[in-house]
Amino acid sequence: MTLQQLEYIVAVDRYGYFVAAAESCGVTQSTLSLMVRKLEDELDVRIFNRDTHPVEVTEAGRMVIDRAKMILYHCGQLLEGTKSERELLSGTLRVAMISSVAPILIPGMFRFIRNNHPSIDLRVEEMLSSTIIAQLRKGEVDMGIVSSPVREADMLELPLYHESFMAYVSPQEPAYSSESIRRSDVLDNPLWIIRDGVRLFDRSMLRPGERFEYDAQYEGGRVGMLIQLINENGGMAIIPETHVNLILRSWQAHIRPIVDPVPMRTVSLVFRKDYIHEQLLNVVVDAVKTIIPSGMQEQVIKGERIKL
Asked: Model confidence over 224-249: pLDDT tens digits?
């Protein structure tokens, strides 16, 4: 068994086709197929079902691939520890983030890294919070940006910034005539959410004793979609403070603060406890500091450098 063979099966799992996996690994299809077959023979496990297109991973194969990803991750961590500072600020940086922060951070993050660290190949994906944690555990992404707390024992959380939630209200609604909306009155309005699909919120969706969590209403969708929906259909939605500047100026008159008390969230950088790449961690933090106003930034990131 070799690390190269582990890289091959991970590539086949990622692309679903031996041809694409071979191209990504820089080898011929016949070479990759032969090495995968030898690994299957050595382990006495059929990793892939080659009768399907794309190929499917067998149940036993999934266990092998998940462990292969972890082995490759730890080998990568070992190699990182031997690199020079210049080498550490190069290569691929994989960041995952939830949909409600992606429009705020992605453009500025690419700009910052392109201007300051052009040797870094930044790759960003939007994911659900649960998917981000799962991919961090498998070593498929380096860091995640989520609404905290995540409360995962094997993860570390670095608070980046705080922001409030506000209401975007259609002129058709009585609440539009108010200067602010009391938090206790929010659910008395026709409220659009993105959770298990776009829909109007119904109190029956809450289990006995469960509170309405503002940030949970964005899983899997964009805030901009809610705004367009309200412009066409009426009602209201809850939006994060940072999204206000993304809204057309003519529509910003639809925004109302929520008060008594003001609902807030903390956006944090989350990564594995055994992550050692301090330089790249600080690159992401420095990028966020150029995007988010200083008054919203968490105090811990205002210093010169984050130490692991």
From this structure: 889 999 999 999 999 999 999 999 99
Rounded (5°) CA angle 249-103-282:
125
Whether 81 shows a pLDDT value over 70: the answer reads: no
Higher pLDDT, 80 or 27: 27
Give the architecture (CATH level 2) of 163-264. 3-Layer(aba) Sandwich (3.40)
pTM above 0.90, yes or no: no
CA distance 216 to 291: 23
Q: Which segments of the chain does DSSP mark as H helices, in order?
A: 3-15, 18-25, 29-43, 59-80, 85-88, 102-116, 129-138, 223-233, 278-291
Q: What is the average per-residue pLDDT within 127-155?
A: 92
Write the CA distances from 113 to 83, 201, 296, integer angstroms: 20, 39, 22
Q: What share of the chain is helix, strand, coil (3-state, %, to 5)?
A: 50, 20, 30
Q: Amino acid identity, residue 59?
A: E
Fold adopted by 3-80: Arc Repressor Mutant, subunit A (1.10.10)
Higher pLDDT, 18 or 305: 18
